[in-house]
């Protein structure tokens, strides 16, 4: 198959007009100027032409929970988000307990289809309750098996459940090569130190990346500081758990992550709203990578990630939408626009948008340890064809970020197969 378009953007900062991609067996054979690719492509390749369009690397949504739906009342009206973050977590717990078992896979299919409709080809997914849903994943996915357990006595059982989930995801990966496992200690306020250490050992032994929600809310920071705040007074009492023994982690966050062994290469930190610049630097030096979810943070009133610092200090970051429970849609384009609106630094807007495009493609693939994120020979044929918004140099990236909506996405291809669009 050869995809030909008015423009090819094989990676952030590079474009060929016109351009083409030749793909076979799920991988890119050639990506470059149209004439070069057509000359070199083997005879007999099917050609798909997209005039007025740009071929891009598929977008990579670095943080999602595709089994969590828009949470609605019994009449189907989507509920407004509660003002308190503890109340939000309680709502997710109630949703999970109240859902019929078949709902999780159904939610996954719907959300995966929505992700594809925006040109997304890969995700960093926090595993939902129904692991079997991932056997049919049309998206490339790092699926993180999640552990939640704060009390020391809960640790063995939770650890065993995570290990079993990773084993099951390994089986699924054997039949669906788009899926690879990871592990996720949920947060530092829901995973106790002992469980955290055993999950780290397990991840290290299996060479698995780990994903942690970190510094998302003021409530989390208050609880980690001294064991107080609404997590202690509202969240845990409501679920009948006593955490009065907890007096805070007693160390700076980066020291705690280092001492538990979590801070290492392969650690993915999600949210990072309430981190100081010193802490961001320390996490980066320790090998961590970062996902920012500005729309989710805004929706919950949790504050703003320091997009300015990440961009100006040249710290690679990626973008995640978080779940449909928190945001109106799974558009990585809208997420990039939200990040753009938070930026107050010295870079010009087209340069910023080029970096946001990089965040939504190659940075996210690298952070998840997935192939892709750029279109290059030998890499996966994961691509999106979108309406070419015009513009030369970095202005193209500004126009892409500014103007791309779902209706501009003509085709999404994962591993050489049209997952959505014209060639369906
Ligand atoms: Zn999350």
Describe this structure in words.
- This protein has 424 residues and is α/β, with parallel strands linked by helices.
- It has two domains: 2-57 and 376-421, Urease, subunit C, domain 1 (Roll); 59-368, Alpha-Beta Barrel (TIM Barrel), CATH 3.20.20.
- The chain is built from 15 helices and 16 strands.
- Strands 1, 2, 3, 4, 5, 14, 15 and 16 form an eight-stranded mixed sheet that branches.
- It is globular, with a radius of gyration of 21 Å.
- The two termini are 14 Å apart.
- The structure holds zinc ion (ZN).
- Zinc ion is lined by residues 63, 65, 126, 213, 270, 322.
How many structural domains in the coordinates? 2
Mean pLDDT: 96
- What is the terminal separation in angstroms? 14 Å
Helix content: 25-40%
CATH topology of the largest domain: TIM Barrel
Q: Tell me the Rg in angstroms.
A: 21 Å
Which key phrases capture this entry?
Urease, subunit C, domain 1, TIM Barrel, 37% helix, 8-stranded mixed sheet, 424 residues, alpha/beta, 4-stranded parallel sheet, single chain
Topology:
Blueprint: E1 2-11, E2 14-16, E3 19-24, E4 27-33, H1 34-40, E5 47-57, E6 59-64, H2 85-98, H3 102-117, E7 120-126, E8 140-147, H4 155-175, E9 179-185, H5 193-205, E10 210-214, H6 218-226, H7 230-238, H8 253-259, E11 267-271, H9 277-285, E12 289-292, H10 294-299, H11 307-312, E13 317-319, H12 332-342, H13 349-359, H14 362-368, E14 383-387, H15 394-403, E15 409-414, E16 417-421
Parallel strand pairs: 1-5, 6-7, 7-8, 8-9, 10-11, 11-12, 12-13
Antiparallel strand pairs: 1-2, 1-3, 3-4, 5-14, 14-15, 15-16
The structure holds zinc ion.
Residues 63, 65, 126, 213, 270, 322 line the site of zinc ion.
